[in-house]
Amino acid sequence: MNRLFRNLLGTKKYSVNCSSPSRICGRLMGQFPEAVFNVSVTGEYSFVFSCLCSVSKKAETFLDGFDCEMKLLGVYGTPLYLNFVRQRPGLLIGLILTILFAVYRNNTIWDIEVSGNKKIGDSEIINTLSELDFAVGKTYSKEKISSVCNKFIILDDRFTRIAINMSGNVAFAEVTERTKKKTVEPPVSESGILSAYDCIIERPEVFCGTSLVEKGQAVEKGTLLISPVEKGADGNEYISGAKGKIYAKTVERFAVYIPYETRKVIYEKDSCKKHILSFLGTNARIPTFFNNTPERYLCNVTAKKLRLSENIILPFKLKSIEKIPYNTENRLISRDEAEDVAYQKMYRKLSRDLGECEVLSTAFEIEENEKYITLYCTAECIRDVAMGNEQ
Q1: Confidence (pTM)
Q2: With the C-alpha atoms ordered 103, 104, 107, 111, is the resulting torsion angle positive or negative?
Q3: Measured on CA atoms in the order 218, 221, 223, 227, is the torsion positive or negative?
């Protein structure tokens, strides 16, 4: 540590010619006990010493009083390096550029590898990520990756999940494609099909019965959409049943509530294992060979209560249960942290509830008070509103 301190302050090394080097060395070290070091007599009329740059002038003045001849052998430490760099500005500029390049390189994406996709090509996924400003040559951060993963699901509804992990400067994107549900034919209703939402009709698809609505018509929840009565070729009406899908524009509102005070679970490092013996019978006994003693699994009270005897083998089963003890603590999160959590939950909720719909637009609104924030989302989408066909 002392050597490091000297290198930071800088040192100078001198060669001194004098009549009595031993006596002058002692006087010099007594005058500057902390600043002079590595003093050694090299001849009958000479000695060498090193001192801190801060006291070099004082040491020279002190030795001039003894009629000594001094010669500077060298300068070492930080001052030498600074002087070296000051005389070579190109080296300083190159060092600064190297540091900036290293910082830029450590936070830049150089390649993106995609896995988990079966039907959708890598290029389509990479293009979608580039729309979210996550591409080769772009910088990244932990917060940016989390935001990109949340927005990716909303932007491209062909996926249900994406996870991005960084290994050096390579981004590994693991995706899960949305599997199409089996097409289920809507059931035939003998009493007609009603609307499950307040909506505006976009596209009626009637398989059986008579449609009572048309495109652009506004209907309320519970309105009859498809009548089971149908006219025949002879002009007479008969009941054929109602069957079909009615696609309409709906406006739905979602809410997510996030309190500022949250409870965090803290797991302990060591897990706890518990062994349980399940006997196949009321008078079962444990074999005691190979150190398989009752005390290995049971407490002393239980062992005595069972009155276990040796060399008797009956069926039993050993169960091992591993538990990780944990504690909980309450912690306060900031308003920005609560907003990030609210948006993450809202994106998951929209992906779950509107996964089978065509989302036209979304509008977000935040209300906050002293204890919590509430994130509202008004979504305009097109879905099948026929009661009984809703997702």
Answers
A1: 0.39
A2: negative
A3: positive
As a whole number of Å, the CA-based R_g of the chain is 41
Q: CA 100, CA 109: separation in Å to the nearest integer?
A: 16
Structure tokens, 124:
């389509």
Containing 93, the helix (H) or strand (E) segment is helix 89-106
For residue 169, give Cα distances in angstroms to 98, 107, 111, 137, 352.
17, 7, 7, 10, 33
Q: How far is CA 46 from CA 22, 186, 202, in A?
A: 9, 109, 105
Where do the H-state alpha helices sit in 110-246?
122-131, 142-155
Mean pLDDT of 201-228: 88
Residue 337: other Cβ atoms inside 10 A? 13
d(CA 371, CA 332): 10
What does the alpha-carbon distance between residue 386 and residue 202 come to, in Å, rounded to a whole number?
A: 13
Q: Is 200:247 a contact under the CB 8 Å cutoff?
A: no
Lowest mean pLDDT among 85-94, 172-181, 189-198: 85-94
Answer whether 37's CB lies under 8 Å from 50's CB: yes
**DSSP 3-state of 259:** strand
Q: What is the pLDDT of residues 33-52, one digit of tens each?
A: 878 888 888 888 889 998 88
